[in-house]
Write a structure and sequence with these properties.
single chain, 267 residues
Length: 267
């Protein structure tokens, strides 16, 4: 087989390189060639074989890199699948916990109100809505007194914002057994409540809001008032009992305050 030689210009055209680049490659031994006098000659078959080998090597390297990339993609896909499954289970567990907590809050007989650290009222449970006479209203804390009809125990003085248990708890104070009266369009008759409030603290010690629990004590108050009135009448009766006995002995009528006694001759 005859050997065909190429000039530096022919090699540059074949490889699509500049003449200077081909010269440098040949001088460095990176291209098979030989200098004949002042000119370079290159065996065509060897250059083609060299190119074919380099192409095969590059193709093999490409397939190798492609397989590595496919393996990496599969690994990352599996990791994402496992992470997504873990997130799905976590979201499902959290949703179940929230439903359970909501069921608990809805079943509590006391009113529960929750506000965030910005003073936004986030939650009012059904018992709270029944006691207050209305649901949660989007309003600012300084309007809570007017919106819900909150009064001090005299039933006349609107409760100042700085005394509201939930706002005091937002400021970091723990409030225990604060008495108030609710009276609004939905609850025109005074409703006595006792409120307890506390700040909500996260694991880092930061205040994230506040919660208030309140109980309707109206019936108890009425019972106490009725008992006090009964005790007062009994006390008055005991105080005037000697006079009643004297009136009875004299056959006279007796009247003093809430105590009225009439005696007839036939008695």
């Amino acid at each position: 087989m005859s050997v065909v030689f190429m000039t530096i210009e022919e090699v540059a055209g074949m490889l699509r390189l500049s003449r200077d680049t081909v010269y440098r490659l040949a001088a460095n031994g990176e291209l098979p060639g030989k200098k004949v006098g002042r000119a370079w000659r290159f065996p065509k078959q060897e250059i083609e074989a060299r190119l074919a080998g380099e192409m095969c090597n590059k193709q093999d390297e490409f397939h190798h890199q492609l397989k590595r990339l496919e393996g990496t993609i599969r690994e990352r896909t599996n990791e994402l699948t496992r992470a997504n499954e873990a997130l799905r289970r976590e979201a499902s567990a959290r949703a179940e916990a929230e439903r359970y907590l909501q069921a608990i809050l809805d079943s509590v007989a006391d009113g529960i109100a929750v506000a965030n650290e910005h003073g936004d009222l986030l939650f009012l449970n059904p018992a709270g809505e029944q006691i207050v006479g209305m649901g949660r209203v989007d309003t600012t804390p300084d309007q809570w007194t007017a919106t819900y009809g909150l009064f001090l125990t005299d039933g006349v003085t609107p409760c100042p914002s700085e005394k509201l248990p939930l706002l005091r708890a937002l400021a970091g104070e723990r409030v225990d057994a604060f008495e108030m009266i609710i009276r609004n369009d939905a609850r025109p008759e005074p409703v006595w409540i006792v409120v307890r409030a506390a700040p909500i603290i996260d694991k880092d010690g930061n205040r994230k809001g506040a919660v208030a629990v309140f109980h309707d004590t109206t019936e108890r108050r009425r019972s106490e008032e009725a008992r006090d009135m009964s005790e007062d009448r009994l006390r008055k009766l005991v105080d005037v009992l000697p006079q009643i006995v004297h009136a009875f002995e004299q056959g006279e009528n007796f009247a003093a305050g809430d105590v009225h006694v009439s005696f007839s001759e036939s008695s």
